[in-house]
Amino acid sequence: MESNERSADTEALAGSFACLSGPPSEPTAHPGCGECLSFSVARQNARSTGDYSAVSDANVLMRRHHMEAHAS
Predict the structure, then answer these.
(1) Is residue 12 included in any domain, yes or no?
(2) Are 54 and 42 in contact (CB under 8 A)?
(3) Which of 5, 7, 31, 49 is 20 to 30 A distant from 66 in Cα terms?
(4) Is residue 10 included in any domain, yes or no?
(5) Helices 34-48, 52-69: inter-axial angle, 10-degree rounding
(6) What's the pLDDT tens digit per position in 34-50?
(7) What's the number of domains the chain is made of?
(8) Exposed/middle/buried for 54, CB within 10 Å: 0-12, 13-18, 19+?
(9) What range defines the domain where residue 39 resides?
């Protein structure tokens, strides 16, 4: 009987999960912006050393910078 309960619980949960897409695309540097370039270089350096946490940090900082400095 316990295995039947687990099966029913599993079936109930199966419909409650959302299908997630891949990660968002990385932000790009705005032409002529030194701060954007700095974030882009930091991201590339982090990626080259395998520090994917720092890659993510650079993406977050660049997105924040875009909202503050390049909002249209």
Answers:
(1) no
(2) yes
(3) 49
(4) no
(5) 170
(6) 999 999 999 999 999 99
(7) 1
(8) middle
(9) 24-72
